[in-house]
């Protein structure tokens, strides 16, 4: 239960960061590169977004340290509904019926998935051989998706890159989880541990893949692919690497229904004008 609460705080912080950074970006002229960074640094709202982003990372690390990877990462997808509600409030734009249906579908689907799967923490840490195999498999899968994305265009390309980014973020979470173990055992050793630098490298590659997905097609194609692949990949990493346990057998049916509901909700939210357009803030909230 503690890990779920921490994961919800992480999702909330990430949503706040997304909204504040979006608001800051709308308040400066169209700039590129270092000039844009200099302009944003002068904005307290942008600095607040950075602080929220750091808070989200801290809460995520604490959640992964306290609970199963297969539990924490799926909870983090609630960031998207949180973001939509916050954007609606901050920009003074009411959510339409489709957006509220999306929020309900994602929230309900997540609840069904977690209740059905009932992930439990693992009882072991990966061996060096398992880390090597997981890294090779992940690189092969992500590389295959990137190469496949070059053979198609539009929505298919965005979806392929979105899945690649989701797998990358899930793999990054495995390094975050392992880094928390190193920190607990010897905090001074963390700075020289390979897990820390692997986490940074995997996170940067995943962020690049996400940006590529968003630039390659519509959010309607990229967001559901990312939203679905991250928790699914996290469950696979958690069960195979950390010995985490989820229900199988007849429970697979409600688990599948939960995933389908999450996908449908993500599709609905990705079509919302709040994320497709640049909503104007109401005068009272400028």
Task: Give your account of this protein's structure.
This protein is an all-alpha fold and 286 residues long. 77% of the residues lie in helices and 0% in strands. The protein has 12 helices and no strands. Helix 4 (69-76) packs antiparallel against helix 10 (219-241), helix 5 (79-90) runs antiparallel to helix 6 (97-117) and helix 6 runs antiparallel to helix 11. The longest helix has 32 residues, at 154-185. The protein starts with a helix and ends in a 10-residue tail after the last helix.
Provide a concise account of the structure shown.
77% of the residues lie in helices and 0% in strands.
Proportion in helices: over 70%
Largest sheet: none
Q: What amount of the residues lies in strands?
A: under 5%
Q: Could you give the count of β-strands? A: 0
How much is the radius of gyration in Å?
Answer: 19 Å
What is the terminal-to-terminal distance?
38 Å
- The parts where pLDDT drops under 50 for at least 5 residues are 278-286
Structural class assignment:
mainly alpha
Average pLDDT for all residues: 85
**Which word captures the global form?**
globular
Order of helices and strands: HHHHHHHHHHHH
Number of helices: 12
């Amino acid at each position: 239960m503690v890990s779920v609460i921490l994961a919800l705080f992480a999702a909330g912080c990430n949503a706040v960061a997304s909204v504040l950074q979006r608001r800051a970006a709308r308040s400066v002229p169209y700039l590129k590169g270092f000039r844009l960074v200099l302009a944003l640094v002068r904005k307290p709202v942008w600095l607040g977004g950075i602080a929220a982003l750091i808070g989200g990372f801290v809460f995520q690390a604490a959640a992964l340290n306290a609970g199963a990877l297969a539990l924490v990462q799926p909870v983090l997808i609630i960031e998207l509904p949180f973001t939509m509600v916050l954007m609606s409030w901050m920009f003074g734009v009411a959510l339409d019926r489709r957006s509220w249906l999306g929020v309900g579908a994602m929230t309900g689907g997540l609840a069904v998935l977690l209740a059905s799967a009932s992930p439990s923490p693992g009882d072991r840490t990966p061996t060096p051989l398992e880390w090597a195999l997981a890294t090779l498999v992940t690189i092969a899968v992500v590389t295959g998706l990137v190469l496949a994305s070059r053979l198609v265009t539009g929505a298919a390309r965005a979806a392929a890159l979105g899945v690649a980014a989701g797998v990358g973020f899930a793999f990054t979470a495995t390094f975050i989880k392992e880094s928390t173990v190193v920190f607990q055992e010897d905090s001074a050793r963390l700075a020289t541990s390979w897990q820390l630098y692997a986490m940074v490298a995997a996170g940067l590659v995943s962020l690049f893949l996400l940006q590529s997905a968003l630039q390659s097609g519509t959010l309607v194609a990229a967001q559901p692919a990312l939203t679905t692949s991250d928790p699914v990949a996290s469950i696979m990493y958690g069960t195979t690497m950390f010995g985490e346990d989820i229900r199988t057998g007849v429970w697979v049916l409600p688990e599948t229904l939960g995933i389908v509901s999450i996908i449908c909700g993500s599709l609905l939210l990705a079509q919302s004008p709040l994320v497709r357009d640049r909503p104007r803030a109401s005068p009272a909230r400028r």
